[in-house]
Amino acid sequence: MKTVEASAARIEWIVLGSDPTEKTLYSGPERERALRAAADWRSFLGVHDLGRVVSHALPLAGRRGRFVLVSDHAPEVPPGVELLAVGTPLDNVGFVSVAMTGERSFRAIVKSAASGTQTRQWWTEVNGARGEPSVLELAPGEIRFLSGMFPEGVEQMELVLDSDRFELDDRFLIVLPRPKTLHVYVAPSIAKSTFIEHFLDTIEPFELVPASEADLVVGAEGPRAAIVFAEPCEGYRDGSVVVENDPLVDGLDFRGLIAREPAREPKGDVLVWQGERPLVTWREQMLYLGFPLEGSNAARIPAFVLALQRFAESARVSKVAFEQRNVETRQLLTLPAEVRRAPSMPGFFDVVGGEGQTPLFHGAAHFALCAKAISARRNR
Hints:
Low-confidence stretches: 370-380
Shape: globular
Radius of gyration: 27 Å
CATH architecture of the largest domain: 3-Layer(aba) Sandwich
């Protein structure tokens, strides 16, 4: 660095982390401040996309500047990039992920990234109280599954491994998921339909309520989100199916429907066409299916159930109510009327909203793609 300064009439140091979305760590003429900024930086990404870093930083260096990529391994770098790689092999064992397998049961995945057999203890911690440890012995590269239960009355806890030199994956924080309960009203005329039964199976947890209390109305127009089916008419629908580019119907196959013609065509944005006639239409908070349920084979075509499930989940997101779940660090959280991002560091966190600071969300953030983050090297 001193050599660079000696050969330049004027110099500006720009220090960036590996996340292009984070702020510049330092920009200015002072070398010591640049070094401190680099030394104080901490990585909280599960995976580092160096391609994005390079494409973001190269224009800042310009044609006459120097771009030094500091890494703990030796990736290929494009012309114009100098590589400073410093690292040492580590024998690491860490948590990869945890998933719920029942109402209170979980299964964790632990992976060894070590060169030899490793022995570790693992245990749970609740409010700092340590559970009974168990012993693991893992061969190089081995993956093990660990099962456990949330004790009664416990909503959050930590899974802990004996610490090694790479400590970031030795703890995994989890909460007991508490999704919002969707209040649903189903019109009596279609309540016993096989199609509606299949649909309701996909939107747990839900509760059947009167129309005035519903977050989602099925089979009639409502004050909030509503799913409406067409009134029958003479003849049957026919024609090739064309699906528009919309998240509600993306990747779904609506072909094979046998259903009667609708008595009238709805107004709104057409999501799926059958011939020249709308098959699925969306307008404001209403999803309109252009066929009557009676006499149709819609229950045998998963696309219709899945489209309704997606619509119902959008109604659940819009509902102002408390929820609790496990998320990735920096994951986007779609909350009523706003979008927030989970913390950059693993940990328990809360989100409140409104003038009364109503609790909206409680979560546990963990590293994304931990399996790829387990590395045999570490920054010095």
